[in-house]
Amino acid sequence: MCLGIPGRIVEISDPENALGIVDVSGVRREINLICIMSEDHPIQTCVGAWVLVHVGFAMSRIDEAEAAATLRMIEGLGEIEQELAAMSTTGTA
């Protein structure tokens, strides 16, 4: 099962290509931020944002409480270990 997994953007790695580094439960990967960017939310505003990550893209912004609740739910389902393992080996979430 592929899930959108919460992570926090910690760095902009390539602003020209809308790439940033996301931390998902201690695993850091480069992801594409284009789906969460707009005139109101330029790339510079992405650092510190909580997002749902799926197949290497930040799909939507979420708040920290929603991120924590989602992580607890995923952990309860036993899915987080599989998703983190996939991120570690493939570089995508």
Explain what the structure shows:
The protein has 93 residues and is an alpha+beta fold. It has a single domain (5-90), classed as SH3 type barrels (Roll), CATH 2.30.30. Helix content is 27%, strand content 35%. The protein has 2 helices and 5 strands. The protein has helices spanning 64-77, 80-90, and strands spanning 5-14, 19-24, 27-32, 50-54, 57-62. A 5-stranded antiparallel sheet has the order 3-2-1-4-5. The model has no long low-confidence stretch (mean pLDDT 88).
List keywords for this structure.
globular, alpha+beta, 5-stranded antiparallel beta sheet, SH3 type barrels, single chain
Strand and helix layout:
Layout: E1 5-14, E2 19-24, E3 27-32, E4 50-54, E5 57-62, H1 64-77, H2 80-90
Antiparallel strand pairs: 1-2, 1-4, 2-3, 4-5
Shape label: globular
Report the end-to-end length measured between terminal Cα atoms: 12 Å
Largest sheet: spatial strand order: 3-2-1-4-5
> Structural class given helices, strands, pairing?
alpha+beta
CATH class: Mainly Beta
* CATH topology description: SH3 type barrels
User: Any guess at the CATH architecture?
Assistant: Roll
Q: Look at the structure and give the mean pLDDT.
A: 88
Q: What proportion of the residues is helical, as a percent range?
A: 25-40%
Strand tally is 5
Strand-residue fraction? 35-45%
Largest sheet: 5 strands, antiparallel
- Secondary-structure element string: EEEEEHH
Radius of gyration: 12 Å
Give the number of domains: 1
